């Protein structure tokens, strides 16, 4: 064998170095860090380590009241480790603390809920991965969309939630903003988290159609049961829920 080839086989790869760094950094988080370190090296060795550490800290905080021995026992369950791997992948791609917090909540909730399995939690986590941070804000808006609903949340996200009403005479920038805002809601509908309320003809009781687009006219959206479930799992409480 060529000496250079032999050297190449024995030399540690860049991903090995990054995996080692990931394990060392995650290991600094008392309990959850050591668990995630066992998975992180092979799953996402080339992603941002600081994001993983922040995610580990979020998850560690949420497992303070959970029996540590029970959590360790779940490491033998492939469905649990598969869920955690998905969480690690998403956490490494995340760009906000809120997103990492949501991911941690889904995983922590899978350990404390008797009604939702690890497989079902992974399904919810993948749904979360399909929507962006702006769409999460819109989804949360529909949890309390009454006239005086959650004014603090609306003020915090006023730049996202401010309605954009463009006309044919509006500048291109305004039309683009309305197009994007509409697309967020349509995407949430496509993945089953929102459902449109269609405008009905007063005589026929059938949906009215827009002549320009050929699509049914909507008069707003509302959460589906799946949308409510996802919001609950990522940490948003329904202010109108009983009990």
Give an account of the 3D structure.
The chain is mostly helical and 243 residues long. It folds into 2 domains: 12-130, no CATH class; 146-234, no CATH class. Helix content is 60%, strand content 5%. It has 13 helices and 2 strands, in the order ααααααααααααββα. The chain has helices spanning 3-10, 14-26, 32-43, 49-62, 68-73, 78-93, 97-112, 118-130, 133-141, 151-156, 158-161, 172-190, 225-234; strands at 194-198, 218-223. It has a two-stranded antiparallel ribbon. α2 packs parallel to α4, α6 packs parallel to α8 and α7 packs antiparallel against α8. The longest helix has 19 residues, at 172-190. The chain is elongated and about 65 Å long. It starts with a helix and ends in a 9-residue tail after the last helix.
Key features of this structure:
mainly alpha; 13 helices; 60% helix; disordered N terminus
Care to give the gist of this entry?
60% of the residues lie in helices and 5% in strands.
N-to-C span:
71 Å
Mean of pLDDT: 83
How many beta-strand elements? 2
- Compressed to H and E, one letter per element, the order equals HHHHHHHHHHHHEEH
- Outline, from the CA principal axes? elongated
Residue runs with pLDDT of under 50 for 5 or more positions: 1-12
Considering DSSP H and I runs of 4 or more, what fraction of the residues is helical?
Answer: 55-70%
Percent in strands: under 5%
Structural class: mainly alpha
Count the domains.
Answer: 2
- What summary fits the major beta sheet? 2 strands, antiparallel
Q: What's the multimeric state?
A: single chain
Radius of gyration based on Cα positions: 23 Å
Strand arrangement across the biggest beta sheet: 1-2
SS element count, helices: 13
